[in-house]
Design brief:
The chain is mainly α. It has 16 helices and no strands. Bound molecules: fe (ii) ion (2 copies).
């Protein structure tokens, strides 16, 4: 693909305000989260101004994404259960996925993303990973670039969905690069930068299929990749590629996950994801 096609896809998505048409409350939350002094209560007060968005946040907190002793029923409780780190990713993810849920494949990408976020939580706990919130957010947003492809490169995306389970199927991200000249990881990195996400999160989203190419967030990108592959293995695959990546054993080795530990992680992921509300 030439650079004109690249520009067309991005312009097309922006023309219909793909990432810009966020509810007003989202920009206020993102702005407030820039300050380290902002409290959970203050964030809750901002979200409450938009009843529709508040309902979505409470719904998400109750969707099986978290282990809460008491199901959160108010926005204050929901914000506490989710935590300020993942909340930022959620504020960006929910409007995009909600807006395009009617587009072919987007509901499946959202279910896959939520399952991946849960798997990243399980992995972070099992490995005592130092950045659990960033890992969860990376899991939730890692494939947001696929939404852009589904919306603005619809014919291409449909052609990939049609061969999702073909026996000779090449990896989705490799095929995108070959045909379009860039892939959903590149778009995800662009998205994360646009909304001033932490640099390590940008890096993890950009390299979630090629963790060895990451210079300063290799472990994070690798953990996100493993969460992505576990979600796929337990039934929440991508609509355009249903297989587990043959690179998974290399990633497990990179994070020091042996067979026994992987089995334990897999079982926990299965238990947690089985409780997830699939279509919210
Ligand atoms: Fe991906
Ligand atoms: Fe994925």
């Amino acid at each position: 693909m030439n650079s004109d096609e690249h520009d067309r896809i991005f312009e097309d998505f922006e023309r219909e305000n793909g990432f810009s048409a966020m509810p007003e409350v989202v920009s206020e939350v993102l702005y407030a989260l820039q300050s380290s002094r902002t409290s959970m209560h203050e964030i809750g007060e901002i979200i409450k101004r938009d009843p529709g968005f508040s309902a979505r946040i409470i719904q998400y907190a109750n969707s099986g994404a978290y282990l809460a002793a008491v199901p959160p029923s108010s926005i204050d409780q929901a914000v506490r259960v989710i935590g300020l780190g993942p909340l930022k990713g959620l504020c960006l993810g929910i409007p995009v996925f909600t807006r395009y849920k009617h587009v072919l494949g987007v509901r499946e990408i959202w279910a896959h993303s939520r399952a991946t976020a849960i798997c990243c939580q399980v992995l972070s706990t099992a490995l005592r990973f130092p950045e659990p919130d960033t890992a969860e957010t990376a899991g939730l947003l890692h494939d947001i670039g696929k939404v852009v492809l589904a919306v603005s490169a619809g014919n291409f995306f449909l052609s990939q969905v049609q061969i999702a389970d073909a026996s000779n199927r090449e990896n989705d991200w490799r095929q995108e690069k070959k045909i379009l000249g860039f892939n959903h990881c590149f778009i995800g990195g662009w998205f994360a930068r646009k909304f001033k996400m932490p640099p390590r999160l940008v890096e993890a989203m950009l390299w979630h299929h090629e963790f060895e190419r990451s210079t300063y967030a290799r472990d994070l990108a690798c953990l996100c990749f493993i969460g992505d592959q576990i979600a796929t293995a337990i039934g929440f695959s991508h609509p355009d590629y249903v297989f587990v990546d043959p690179d998974l054993p290399r990633a497990l080795k990179h994070l020091g996950i042996d067979g026994d530990l992987f089995e334990k992680i897999l079982r926990q992921c299965l238990e947690r994801v089985a409780k997830m509300v699939v279509y919210d």
